[in-house]
Amino acid sequence: MARDAKKLQVVKPAKASGKKASAAKTKAEARADAKPQVKAPAAPAAPRPQPVSAFKPIITHSDELPLDRQLLLSMHDTMVKARCLEERLIAMYKSGHGYFWIGGPGEEAFNVPLGLLIKKGQGPAFDYLHFHYRQSATLLAMGEEPLGALRQMKNTATDPYSGGRNFAGHFSKREWNLCPVSSPIEVQYAMAPGTAHVQKRFGGDGITIVTGGDAGTAEGDFASCLVWSSRPGQELPVLIIVTNNRWGISTPYGQVQGVERLSDRGAAFGMRTKTIDGNDPISSYLELKEAFEYVRTERKPYLVEANVSRLYGHSSASGANLTKDEPDCIELFEEKLDAHGVLSRADAKKVHERYFDEMAELARQAREEPLPEGDSIWNHVFFGEGPADPLPRG
Amino acid sequence: MARDAKKLQVVKPAKASGKKASAAKTKAEARADAKPQVKAPAAPAAPRPQPVSAFKPIITHSDELPLDRQLLLSMHDTMVKARCLEERLIAMYKSGHGYFWIGGPGEEAFNVPLGLLIKKGQGPAFDYLHFHYRQSATLLAMGEEPLGALRQMKNTATDPYSGGRNFAGHFSKREWNLCPVSSPIEVQYAMAPGTAHVQKRFGGDGITIVTGGDAGTAEGDFASCLVWSSRPGQELPVLIIVTNNRWGISTPYGQVQGVERLSDRGAAFGMRTKTIDGNDPISSYLELKEAFEYVRTERKPYLVEANVSRLYGHSSASGANLTKDEPDCIELFEEKLDAHGVLSRADAKKVHERYFDEMAELARQAREEPLPEGDSIWNHVFFGEGPADPLPRG
Amino acid sequence: MANMAQAVRMALHYAEERLGVTDIFGEDVGPPLGGVFTCTQGLKTTWNSPLDERGIIGMAMGIAMAGGRPIAEIQFCDYIYNTIDLLKLAGNTCWASNGQWNLPMVVMTPVGSGIRGSIYHSHSFDASATHIPGWKIVMPSTPLDAYGLMLAACREQNPVMFLIPKALMRMKGEELIPGEPGEDKALSKLIDAPLGDRSTWKAQWPETGEVDIAIGPAKVVRAGSQVTVVSYGRTMPLCRKAADVLSGEGIDVEVIDLRTLWPYDWATLKASIKKTGRVLFVNEDTEVTNFGEHLVRRTTDELFYELLAPPKLLAGKFVPGIGLADPLEAASVPQEHDVLAALRELASLAP
Amino acid sequence: MANMAQAVRMALHYAEERLGVTDIFGEDVGPPLGGVFTCTQGLKTTWNSPLDERGIIGMAMGIAMAGGRPIAEIQFCDYIYNTIDLLKLAGNTCWASNGQWNLPMVVMTPVGSGIRGSIYHSHSFDASATHIPGWKIVMPSTPLDAYGLMLAACREQNPVMFLIPKALMRMKGEELIPGEPGEDKALSKLIDAPLGDRSTWKAQWPETGEVDIAIGPAKVVRAGSQVTVVSYGRTMPLCRKAADVLSGEGIDVEVIDLRTLWPYDWATLKASIKKTGRVLFVNEDTEVTNFGEHLVRRTTDELFYELLAPPKLLAGKFVPGIGLADPLEAASVPQEHDVLAALRELASLAP
Ligand SMILES: Cc1ncc(C[n+]2csc(CCOP(=O)(O)OP(=O)(O)O)c2C)c(N)n1
Ligand SMILES: Cc1ncc(C[n+]2csc(CCOP(=O)(O)OP(=O)(O)O)c2C)c(N)n1
Ligand SMILES: [Mg+2]
Ligand SMILES: [Mg+2]
User: Fold this and answer.
1) Cβ–Cβ contact C134 with D under 8 A
2) Residues of C with CB below 8 A from D294's CB?
3) Adjacent-strand bridge partners of D279
4) Which tens digit of pLDDT belongs to each residue from A121-162?
């Protein structure tokens, strides 16, 4: 995580703010900066956890923001980058350069801090990731190049996640323990205890992170995850996340579920739970940090519900048009950064412009790349075996 | 329910105690008796229910028992009757007059009160029953004849529940809204909201009752039942019951589930919940009565966990032998009835002897009856259509 | 002319009004969306369910047990596979209770490829469904059949699986549904929900009537003498087109739309195969343990000595999914040229 | 000689010790019971899971993703039907990720009738399993094959479905597993958990070795020249017995144990059918959309002109369940007399 934060600080914020000082930082200084000074009290290790967060929410209107300036800038930078990527994907869809869009515009304030806190790598020593389809911002925060997402949108053979086989936003990257994002809702919650089980036995501080939406918690798999993560003496190091945008396609959350706070679902299982403000990257970062530290060190589950926005509707199936009815976490954050003299409106605008151009250019590149061949359907039916049609063709 | 209680009082206790006085009761008197004088305070209609019962547990060691004498006697009578039935089924299995046994010896103190409180009949005006395979005592308390269970054990064509097709304890009786007991664990929790949904629209005071074991709550269907029963404005009149014997076949509850009190699973859904002593028929009756009244009148769900014993192991697969490690609710009850001068040891013994003989006689009858014919497999593939093999036989 | 989505909608309206349908529900089935394919817009008894397919099927079973008449939608059949145990239970409840209980319920779900749905919006369900006893299974390929079969399904005493080919959802019919206005725009004005705010919108239902379409009978879509092709769903129109093309080549193909997969109309198939001596079965489900293989088996069982050529199956390739990129989908499930090639070869085989 | 439960147990022990198996789990799989059929008694890595089949399959997938080697048991295949979506996902994970991820996991589950299991302890799973791409599917009919196929499954890079015929669980083999003591009681003393308290019991594992049994090859159990019968699982011994009876009647039957259902050994089947010109496929799954129908289709596809009689399938009747009463079970799934009758008829058909 330090590695990522450093990378982000040395490179992007320098570009973003254009300030020599920060650009000139030595690696050592940068690394130091990477450790944010948390102003809020650490979570008490309550014996029997309460359904509500024991962690006091950050008062973000205090004069001094509780996170390091470089981290704030890098988070803003990545949030904007992710937004520009998603908006480019939507533009590609609307101009016929892709068949279907689904993604995470509106969740950047939560997804970027999440990505920064992930221990990236392959194998049980690192974090296993069972994501859903709205997390391009998390991948970018982990250091992923945006080109792959654009290629997947155009379903080219070069799509690094599925080779043109799967929908946009369906990432998969084994070198980072990023398990394939599945279209079926909630199945990732049934698999997550499995990777966490191996990590529990392996030791170390690698954990499993699983994410999904609010509507999906109605599936039994969400409950299965709670059951399997909390077996007595076998509690698993899994960070169970629900991003609550209060929608399931066209269905308002309150119309179909009577659970006031989804994080309460964990209480009966004796696990630590909290509901946080996913529209505020600062509070998200600090709340997630506390949860990550608990799961990494205690090797026990933690259920975090994050309230987020859905800014372009459910998917291209519902038009993928910007809504003004929901708070835009980037607008809110820029307001705050400006008010606290961290980043001016003008400089923020530059960040948007830069990434707009960058994504447009990358999209042009992706659009030119070839599609997979029909015969390639026989590739990877079985791992470690060559392509083969099992039945002869007349 | 009054009808059943009356029946039980006028007939069985009279037989049981042999007291002229009670035997001579008029129907009117009997009906009056049927309404037990509840000594405990009624449940407060708390706006937001707590996970734990708001209903004070009955102090059963008080001098006066909080239920009408005739009701106590009739409950005891049916509990013994049910035990004798189950023990006869086991005897049949062990002597080769059946292939598989599973049933409810040890749950009589809970299952009999449950049966007495059910509103018996066909259609949404009456209670719908989604039971599991340990509830012969509930059926007997509802007034069912024991012969059917013995026939099912011998898988005779006369088996009224499945015509010799299904295992013992797999009851089904449409005239009483008793849905077929299914071997697959927990699916009844997925169906129960459906009958309750119709009843909610129908009005009246008919409710849905669903029962299952503790281990089964790990299945997603248990969570589905909680979700579907508590939709805002669509809360359903369903009494959700878990009989917790702390076993799933050979697996101790505490080894695989971290939920301290299973009733807590309902808390997040804003439903009323409690855990009760299923080994005490008096407390079971009063706790269930409160829950039934709440669901009937409020038309909202109630989750009740009852702690019960498993006296003959899981099933014939595990030997079906009596264990001394778990409390026997009938022994405990008879101690209490004797101590309070309601029923002497000697009279209790007579009840056991009478039902022992009765069940032995009925078993002899069932054993002689013919099995279904092979050709009958084609009956009832489709409702309302004659038997037909869809494929011609060479 | 109504398209299939509109036809289903009109049938559901008729069923609400006259056949006692009490609940039409599923994910996003109620207002404002009225279903991801608009099949349930403007109806009286629709409601949005939690996102829980097991809960949806369980709810339908419970409603049916309590005397209601539910129509449950699984948004895409790709998401029905965690409910197979419940579907099996629905199919054996009458049998297991020795005839006591029946479940008059309809499960409708969009199936198949053809909308660039990638791995999880392209599944077929006919193979899995036909392996579950106790269900009646229908799959229309025209709006009129969809209308008629839905009415029949809503009168049925047993569980009915109503499979809707996604690719044909927007295809207009050639035959009028009795009562529908002949002119497209007119129908759309009446029963298609407007874009934007729908809070005050109400559908204006045309007075549609009964049709003579039952669960069971197949339909000879085109009479022919040399080769029989039997299909259903998305591949049905491909077979018709292919037959037209081949008639130009002097190959006379009889085209049969099975419509009901179970219990299916063997008499009509048998008569046709006896006549032509050559049969091709076409569907798009993956081809191993495929319902078309049952039909091939039935054919060899009963007509082996009358066949002029081996009975053939053209179905989806046995791959784990249908890829998003066009070349992948085209290579995975039957296209018109595949049907043409298969029929040409079958016609050319010497007895 | 070991019975099948003991053979599986010895294979799992070998796999724990030498093939890197990390977790053998499922309902009642761990101590004290060691599985409802005793297949997992005395092993090192067994544990009891919550009663949640979806959780079990999900856990296995996760363990495999993280580099473990899980063997998950579904207590009876009758209870696997709410996990089909997960099984499909396991089967398409490699394909959907374009070859990045593989899931080396084994799911083992008892299948079939023959223990008076009534409606929910008699299901077959071969038809459903063979319709799921991305899995290898095996089904032994002898203890030695069970031992060898389990070793092969534990070396496999892809998901393997290991189907164990319940009815054969206690049947002793005719061939020794290398290293097992020849004398029954001896083996039982070593590896069968005692009745009563098992808290201090430890299995004494014999040093069993490798066998030359791979996923794929079928086995010609009995050479014959006039009729080919292909089967697997419970019905396999019935076919062997029938062949012996028929040899007395001058009918020479070749008996093939398929053993691996996917990918199956077509070469061996093809050679036999070419030789005899007559083939009967026997399994006990319900016969509509049945894997045997795929084999019939494959046969007509490739060998139509070499057949002397129609390829036949003998399978379970298409009824919603297998009833408890003996006459019901006997009428529902193939018995020895059914196999005899089917073979006699097939042999008698004039070309
Ligand atoms: C098992 C399953 N059922 C249905 C769908 C169709 N579907 C895709 S997204 C979605 C809504 C998901 O809502 P939520 O879980 O809140 O996540 P969100 O999209 O709001 O982030 C539905 C119903 C699916 N993909 N998988
Ligand atoms: C879905 C399913 N999985 C597994 C089984 C096998 N099985 C039968 S009873 C049982 C244990 C049930 O335990 P619990 O739910 O606590 O009920 P109890 O028998 O203890 O009353 C199991 C695993 C089953 N019948 N259904
Ligand atoms: Mg949502
Ligand atoms: Mg239990």
Assistant:
1) yes
2) 287-290, 293
3) D228
4) 999 999 999 999 999 999 999 999 999 999 999 999 999 999
